[in-house]
Design brief:
This protein has 242 residues and is mainly beta. The chain contains 2 helices and 12 strands. The longest helix has 16 residues.
Amino acid sequence: MSSDRDHATKIPNSPDPGELLGTARTTKYQSNHPANDDSLNNQQISLFVPPQISTLPQAEADAINQIREMLVPQFSDPKIKKKKLKMNSPLVSGECIVLSKKKGLAAGHASISVPTSLEALCSFDRENRLEITGKFFISEEKLEDVSPSHFVKYFAFPFPYPFHDREVINSTIYSHVDEDTIVYVQCPTIKNEHQTDSTRGTRVRATIHQYLEMKRVGPNLTRMEYYSLMNMNGNVPKFRWR
């Protein structure tokens, strides 16, 4: 059986140095696209292009804005077909846009109201993401603490044989927008030192984009809006969408 690496859907190359910060590419999945055998016809997604660093704060702001514009408008567009997800709690609502089941390409959105303060929720989320748990990943390594609000991590997660394990190198960035709003994004790293096409062993490079907005809506109530886009960059095991 041939490996899924041989059938990977490749992400476009990074832009030339002369291109502007914060640009995003859009790929339209037409009938001749390799992922279109089970994707939504003519569905459009924007692919993240890591902004080039003129100054680090500007690049971080560009990354946050780009991820927001990639993900949030898709779920408010009535023309785009969405699938409601069954959630384990009545406090949570979820939906997804399935672009390709076989290729592991999907976007998701979840909303939840959490009975705690904005500061406590952000602290919990931050500590949880910094912790190396080993519960799900087969490899996890912090590559750099860029700043108190930005770190770079490598992690890999297992796929059953004959599929290849996947790996990701992501920047995680927090931004305190105002006294009632904190934003978190995760995206392919914007630090040049960690941008590489080389993978470890036989692993396949996946991409994961996340946008999380935590907003204070009461003295002890915080609203979370979570958006994600995952591209496993090749064939994935069959699974059931809930």
